[in-house]
Structure formats: structure tokens, C-alpha cells
Amino acid sequence: MTRIAPEEPRRPTWSGDRINAVAVRLERDHHLDLATVWPHVWLILPEETRTQITTARQNLTRATTLTAWALLYLPLTVWWWPASLITTTLILTGWARTRTTTDTYALLLEATACLHIRSLADHLGLDPTGPLTPETGDALTRHLTPTPPPIPPPHVAG
Q1: pTM of structure
Q2: Strand ranges (E), 2-149
């Protein structure tokens, strides 16, 4: 099953499911909301880690761009038969690269979150001891989730 999807599929594409699986696992195992915690983790990451994640994301963008080029060549296949060879090559190459780079990007996101969450908790003064627990994850998510603005009091006519 994990070859197809590491978690229950919820997105329209394999790539979307692969990246979403990171958020699902962090929520289930550590009670962390990745969308809430990630910007704060990013700010405390060492430069080398940021560079690796940025490179992986750029590689993913290049792979999906290659697939988009295939779609641009597709209409040409009606008038020019060699375009079908180009289109097929671009689709197959783009598909393979997208799967590989998505997997790499998702692995880096999950590993980075797991390795640097404790540091974030320390920076915020939550002082976790031992392994990351769901209680620490709840505290981090709660601490970093913005609160809604207060409801203004009703206007009193004078």
C-alpha cells in the first residue's frame, strides 16, 4: 500500500497525496499542524537545510514544468507527427521526474519538521524534555495559531 500512497489518498494526484501524507502523519503522531508550524520552523533552520529544501522544491517545479511543455506540444500532433514523439517523451520523463522529486521533497519536509520541532519549542520557551509528544505538539500548534480578532462591542446609541 505504501508504494501507492503512504496515507489514505485525499488529493487528486499522487504528488499531492505524497506531500499531504507528511502533514497527516505529523498531525496524527505528534499533533502538529504543519501549515501552522512550518513558517516558524523555516525561520530557525540552518542555511544548509534551507538550501536542500529549496533545491528540492526547485527540482519539483522543473519536473512539473517539463510535463506542462508536453501539454503545449500535444495540439501540434494533429498537424506534425514528430510532435507525438516529443510529447510522449516529455510526458514520460516529466511524470517520472515529478514522482521522484515529489518523494524527495516530502521526505525532506518530514525529516526537517521532526528534527527541528524541538528547537522551535525551545525558542518559544516550551522546554520539551524527552521525545516529541502529542502534548508538546498540541502546545506548539496552539501557541502558533493566530487568534481571531475580538468581536467589537455592540454600538450603543446615546
Answers
A1: 0.85
A2: none
